[in-house]
Amino acid sequence: MTITKVSAETMRTLCDILEDRADFYLMLAGFYFKPLTQDQIDALAEQDYTAYIEGDSLIDEGFDDIRRVLRKRHTGTRRILATEWTSTFGGAEAYKGRYCVPNASVFLDKSGSTYGWPRNAASRIYREHSLRLQGNSGMPESHLSFELEFLATLSREAAACLRSGDTAEAAALLVDSQTFIRESVLSWFPALRDLALRMLKTRFYRGVLRITEGYLDLDLETLEDVLAELGGAPICPAETTEAAA
Amino acid sequence: MTDLMKNGNPDQIPDEPANRDLAKPSDKKELSFDEKVEALDRFIHFEPLIREVDYKTLLFCETRRNLSDIEEAMASFPEFKGATRDQFALVTELVDHYGLAFFELDAEGRVVTEADKDGLTENEVDDLVVGFAYETTEVGRAVAERLDPHRRFAELVEAAPEREPLYRALLNLLRVKRTFAEVDSYVRGSEGAMVLAQAGVGGMQPSVFVDKLERAGVLFYDGGWQATEAGIEVLDGVRAAA
């Protein structure tokens, strides 16, 4: 049997992938946390969406939705998007008695309560990774923005482990990420998406939902690929030093 | 007067305002022209903070304007500083209250009609419509005529002719920006009291005079009270060219 070392270049690539994952999850988390500010809208409008125009994946379609809304933005855009967010994700409106606050507890707990068993489950998972919400978060642990931020945190920690040469811990974090995506996010996100699409009036947050769903599915594949790269391969100590530098 | 007659070309079909697909109460009856004028007039007067902004917007849009130009113009109105919502909200309200017609434009600036959208996908419609424009309706023109500050001031004077000297004295005082305290002192002080005595009135608070002149569109507040351009015209007996 030939043992293959993970090259320093591959390690850097994997770290970049994990850092990019973290950034992307934080961006998604921000969409669900609160309405966008004017500065955020302007920054989004300045992004280059060329790569997404011709594609047909959910992520491509989602960014195209965002691009189309923002290219026609005007003085009322921030207010309209804020109203859309507040009505749907803020719980100000209901659809046939159902609220669309992006909180796993609302969708999975039979009573639809905000602090049901899914919140306790998420809180336990965070504690297992020595994480907890700041005291003034104002929302439960099972809120989608916190679940996405958790995935970002695990991704950065995994990158840090790789740089320090601890591939076993990095792999464990990525396996935990896969489990969390499947069991704690995708277990209820489709229901959120279906209800939100009945309530949303603009394309912007429809696009956000598409990007989120597309990225979660893609990320499971990405994690498989990264784990395959890490699987059973030791790192050359010299390269470890270089990677950690 | 319809657009056809105004343009002098009976073959020219008026541009069709875009279907806003707004949810409207199913039992809402179609209003007559006069009812729409009253509805728009009542709406504009309902909020003093946006009254003059709405009036100036109706004037600005007597020629069809692009949304971005309207937003920029509205932001330049001194009264816009006190507006409680963004320009797009104010323009949309004027559309909803019959004052403005809304048009969707293609890349060549032509009006896009509902027929143009038939059979197109959502993305194709989005690519077809590249801009928005607005134009004052006949209802809007009728209300703008009522809101002309010269007319409003004349109605103010007609209602209480004895107050005209003090109105004019205040406008003259407010050719430059002054605090309300200065206005109050003037009205209560010797010069103001003399004007009041000459006019045969007394006992009214200075704030009443300021309020009435503001509602007539000849005074505005921007960190202090000041005569509007129309107020200066009234004072000087001139009128800006249309």
From TrEMBL, chain A:
Pfam families (alphabetical): Nitrate_red_del (PF02613)
Keyword Chaperone: yes
Lineage top rank: taxon: Bacteria
SUPFAM superfamilies hit by this protein: TorD-like
Keyword Chaperone: yes
InterPro entries: DMSO/NO3_reduct_chaperone (IPR020945), TorD-like_sf (IPR036411), TorD/DmsD_chaperones (IPR050289)
Name this polypeptide is given: Uncharacterized protein
Automatic annotation (TrEMBL), chain B:
Region (Disordered), start-end ranges: 1-27
Residue ranges with Basic and acidic residues bias: 17-27
Name of this chain's protein: Uncharacterized protein
